[in-house]
Amino acid sequence: RLYQIPFEMPGCEGKSEPQTLHLIGDFSAPAEFFVTLGVFCFLYAMAALVLYLRFHSLYGENKKLPIADFCVTVCFTFFWLVAVAAWGKGLSDVKAATRPTSLITAMAVCQDEGVACSAGTTPAMGLANISVVR
What is the pLDDT of residue 89? Predict the structure, then answer.
């Protein structure tokens, strides 16, 4: 939810007051989908573990239960891959929205004649990239 984060634009050599720039974009949905799916997978795994350990005879006698378990597992696997791809896309969108060159082009003070704006340092996104890969 980048639109909730204010970004203070500096004035140009004290000639103007600093202004607030709000970033554009809401990339929280992929992360929320990923976390929600993870919670549901965990809860299903705990329920399946209880079924396997506590009601082993029921699981062994009923031929439809292992097939249903397999189908649910395949569905969770597919949704997990979709969630990882969505999370990766959301991260790349956040990186694009917070890229220093994107911020400079959004600042009105940097568009004036004779003004040279510098991006400074590039944010480190290594840990965020690792979180998607893992």
Answer: 85
